[in-house]
Amino acid sequence: MTSRPASAQHLRDLERLRRVRDRIDREYAQPLDVEALARGAHMSAGHLSREFKLAYGESPYAYLM
What we know:
This protein has helices spanning 4-26, 34-41, 45-56, 60-64.
């Protein structure tokens, strides 16, 4: 087993998280919720929340506020 596939997946997740964060920054005045953000990133809400918190130190909900 190699770490290469895991690293590639991690990089894809980080790219998705960056796009989610950018969307929050662009559309902050519009109603957004974690479910909608997760759908846009093709992730479950739970996975998005966990990965976002690991990457940015706060949950997507906290970042939205």
